[in-house]
Amino acid sequence: MRLLDVFTNYRSSIILILALAIGAMVGIYFPELAHSVAPIGNIFINLLFMIVVPLVSLSVTSSIASMTDLKKLGIILLAVILVSAIMAIIPSLTMISLATLFNPAQGVTLTLSEPMNTGGGHMDFVKMLTTNDFVGLLSKSNILALVIMSIIAGVAIGQSGEHGRKVAAMLHSLNVVIMKIVSMIMIVAPIGLGCYFASTMANQDPELLTSFARAILLFLVTALIYFIFGSTFYAAIAGGRPAIASFWRNVFPSAATALGTSSSLASLPVNLRSAQKMGLKEEIADICLPLLVNINKGGAAMTASLKIVFIYAVLGLDFTPEVFFITLLLATLYAVIVSGVPGGAFLGEIFIVTSLGLPMEVIPMLVVIGATTDAMATVINVTHDLSATQLIEKIVGKRLTFHTDNDKDPAALS
């Protein structure tokens, strides 16, 4: 029964990994067949690119517009965003450093079917973060600028009173439709990505598969170390030895649920119970954890960082200081914004590829890394929601007074 539960929880990931593995074998041992099915893969990738702009704009704008309904509790919201950003930067720095030190590619280079133009390694941050007209926001090449404008639009909608609420309701309905389109496209994901990966691997060195195994092993070891020492570090800042002891006494039900379901949302009820057992203030935990489940994604930041370092290595590109900082920025945005978009299974890969100007051929490789590291990344995401709540309670302290119909004795909240 346990094996059946595992398959149920990881069914989509297992099917996707099997499809990519079959595609890799077809590409290596039957290259002519791989080339013949390439158009199927190209059609699927194009479908993803066609939907990515409305998906990003509607999802991010709608989400931010809803969040600003908590403006009366702005101090908590600000603390949530600040802590989430910091808890994305720290694991990203760790992953980037170790991935560049222990290069998982080990000299293996990806052969592309078409020449790649990366602009000579120079990145124009003005063009990356903004466009010179509105039409530019409708291009997948300007996905980062689209995210920034969507955030601004979401904040404006949330601050526009009754008119803003009407717009937010409309955006929510549109977002539901977009997500249905995405779900329809994803039905053929195993076939589409399998065919695309087959054509990509048709001209590659089989040693490239070994590079994937090294990258995944590196992630698992790094994630385990960060889970142990990072969690202890955050708890120490939040409350010293008592907070450390409280965290480690109560975190394992949340960690087990995250590992078993590979879902931050499914782990939320268990996390709320763990927060209660840790003695965290109910008024703070009940606000923070539902927000953190969408934007506090340190595990996702680690995954994004590894993807970028790995792809740069197999493409033979220089990982310059400039690329280092943009990787840190992208990993943070990936964690705080992109990974929280519901249903956007490949949005992160598209976000990375379009932001860095990388070839579409690397998307299946990013999917492989993402699918195989998802369970451990979810453990980091879920357990560090508790760590973040500890820190937020420390930051907020007694500066925020809650008013309810039945005011509670402050002593009872301790």
Automatic annotation (TrEMBL):
Keywords: Cell membrane, Membrane, Transmembrane, Transmembrane helix, Transport. It is found in: Cell membrane. It holds the Pfam family SDF. The chain crosses the membrane at residues 12-31, 43-61, 73-102, 134-157, 177-199, 211-237, 299-317, 323-347. The keyword Secreted does not apply. It comes from the Bacteria. InterPro entries: Na-dicarboxylate_symporter, Na:dicarbo_symporter_sf. It is a multi-pass membrane protein. The keyword Signal does not apply. PANTHER family: PROTON/GLUTAMATE-ASPARTATE SYMPORTER, PROTON_GLUTAMATE-ASPARTATE SYMPORTER. This is Dicarboxylate/amino acid:cation symporter. The lineage of its organism: Bacteria, Pseudomonadati, Pseudomonadota, Gammaproteobacteria, Alteromonadales.
